[in-house]
Amino acid sequence: MFADFLKKLTGPNTAPLPDEDARLALCALLVRLARADGEYATVEMAQIDRVLARRYALSPFEAAALRTEAEGVEAEAPDTVRFTRAIKDAVPHDDRLAVLEAMWSVVLADGERDMLEDSNMRMIANLLGINDRDSALARQKAEGAA
Fold first, then answer.
1. Tens-of-pLDDT digits for all 146 residues of the chain?
2. What is the extent of the structural domain holding 59?
3. Whose CA is closest to 47, among 95, 98, 102?
4. 0.90 cut: is pTM over it?
5. What whole-number distance in Å separates Cα of residue 46 and Cα of residue 57?
6. Which of the residues 18, 28, 47, 111 has the least number of beta carbons within 10 Å of its own beta carbon?
């Protein structure tokens, strides 16, 4: 199953991913961000589940199942660029701002700002076509919601 999804991400076809695959790509990217500092805390997993439940109207069980699937995908995926490309192709720009805010909420879930997480967020924002100012605003919104 992971192999088929990864083929879609890495293959030469540039067609946008179906909604379910774009959702899996977003979740895998959230997992990658949470793991960036070398610690994948329970509070980060819980925040990912809340983001997924809210964004996709999932039950807590469905959100946790999606996260578990995404953890496997993230562990096997070659790079972050392909996840961001899938999201950029599937999500309109205004909605990508909400995606970035959700990403910041995961990064900030453990109460610490880590240089690796910040670096990943700068790269991801750029790959999603979001400028530094809008990323900072998304971070501030995520901080205010915490």
1. 444 544 444 455 555 555 677 788 889 999 999 998 888 999 999 999 999 999 899 999 999 999 999 999 888 877 788 778 777 877 788 888 888 999 999 999 988 888 888 898 999 999 999 999 999 999 999 988 76
2. 2-6+16-145
3. 102
4. no
5. 16
6. 111
